[in-house]
Amino acid sequence: MTAEATTSEIGDEGAVAVPAAVGKVVSPARLTWWKFRRHRLAVASLVFLIAAYLVTLFASFVSPSSPSTRSRYLYAPPQSVHLFDKDGTFRGPFVYGYRMSRDPKTMRLVYADDPSRIFPLALFVRGETHEVLGLFETDLHLFGAPGGYVFLAGTDAFGRDMLSRLLHGAQISLSVGMISVLLSLVLGLLIGGVSGLFGGRIDTVIQRIIEAIIAIPTIPLWLGLAAAVPRDWPPVYQYFAILLVLSLVSWTSTARVARGRFLALREQDFVTAARVYGAGWFRIIARHLVPNLMSYVIVTLTLAIPGIIIGETALSFLGVGLKPPTVSWGVLLQEAQKIQTITFYPWLWIGPAACVVSIVLAFNFLGDGARDAADPFSR
Amino acid sequence: MNTTPAEPILRVEGLCKHYGARRSMFQAAAAPIRAVDGVDFAIQPGETFGLVGESGCGKTTLGRCIARALDPTSGRILYKRPGGADGEEPVDLATLSPSGMRPYRRDLQMIFQDPITSLNPRMSLLDIIGEPIVINGIAKGRAVRDMVADLLEQVGLRADHMTRYPHAFSGGQRQRIGIARALGLSPRFIVCDEPVSALDVSVQAQILNLLQDLQASRQLTYLFIAHDLGVIEYICDRVAVMYVGQVVELASNEALFSRPLHPYTEALMAAVPVPDPAARREAAVLEGELANAANPPSGCTFHPRCRYRTEACKTTRPALREVVPGHFVRCHRAEELTLAGPSDYVAREARP
Ligand SMILES: Nc1ncnc2c1ncn2[C@@H]1O[C@H](COP(=O)(O)OP(=O)(O)O)[C@@H](O)[C@H]1O
Ligand SMILES: [Mg+2]
Question: Nearest ligand to the C-alpha of residue B58?
Answer without folding.
Answer: 1
